[in-house]
Amino acid sequence: MGAVADSQHPWAFAFGILGNLISFMVYLAPVPTFYRIYRKRSTEGFQSVPYLVALFSATLWLYYAMLKQNAVLLITINTFGSVIETLYIAMYIVYATKASRKFTIKLLGFMNFGLFSLILVVLHYAFHSQYRAPVLGWINVAISVCVFAAPLSIVAQVIRTKSVEFMPFSLSFFLTLSAVMWFAYGLFLKDICIALPNVLGFVLGLLQMLLYAIYRNRKQVIVDPEKKLPASEHVKNIVILSTIATSEVHPVDAKPCDGNDVEDVDGKDENKDVDGDEHEKCVVVVVDVDASGELQLKSEEPCAV
């Protein structure tokens, strides 16, 4: 695959500049996420895998740009990407739980140091200089597919929790625009290794934005009363599962439905008959809050007391 100077392709140069600008925004999109991690001193439900894979990809593309001639625009963006992803990972390790920190460090050592060094050694000793860039280019295609596929774990979490809190819209939007710019850059440069993976990036970016539009106003609510209550009794607690790892329990002092059911300050029903043969029952009711604010019943299951 011949190396072509950016200056000989004005459109490639133009899309390369736009790709740099948008990719800067892509790399900076997680800043609010890591500010939140810093403020809360916790990584909450965020994962480190997308950042580790992004760092691995940036370093490989940086090496690929160095093997090509006059690929300055690839060097600038991937140098910045390598630096910013390293900072993200360092902050994640500082505030992660023990298990997440251990997993992140192991994956960092295996992929970003071990596998990267292995690729460099194999390219240097197994291939002549004229073949190194094409071979590394196809390796980068495979790695770039993994970079674009890494957010699929977040997509699965969005579908499971019906929450988009851990999938920022800004990141998905700029990833899609970035894929378009770098596809055009590779197309005008006649470099299929640059153009090909960005087709997948564009498709996955559209998928993430579609999920954001579907789930951005959805919340999952669980109503957990002390027992399976008839209409004349009240709900004691409402457990709202937030989109972060913890849940909040809100006590509700509901008014009695009629004059005969009166609950005293100790939370006991004055008219409730005490019978040793009767046991309290519990039910978990799962409902959704739609856009109008109304509760929609999804399921009702018994739970252990």
TrEMBL record:
Subcellular localization(s) per the UniProt record: Cell membrane
Function recorded in the entry: Mediates both low-affinity uptake and efflux of sugar across the membrane.
Membrane topology of the entry: Multi-pass membrane protein
Gene3D superfamilies: 1.20.1280.290
Record-given protein name: Bidirectional sugar transporter SWEET
Lineage of producing organism: Eukaryota, Viridiplantae, Streptophyta, Embryophyta, Tracheophyta
Region feature (Disordered): 254-276
Organism: Rosa chinensis
Record family assignment: Belongs to the SWEET sugar transporter family.
GO molecular function: sucrose transmembrane transporter activity; sugar transmembrane transporter activity
The organism's place on the tree of life at top rank: Eukaryota
Transmembrane segments: 12-37, 49-66, 72-95, 107-127, 139-159, 166-188, 194-215
A Pfam family reported for this protein in Swiss-Prot or TrEMBL: MtN3_slv
Keywords per UniProt: Cell membrane, Membrane, Repeat, Sugar transport, Transmembrane, Transmembrane helix, Transport
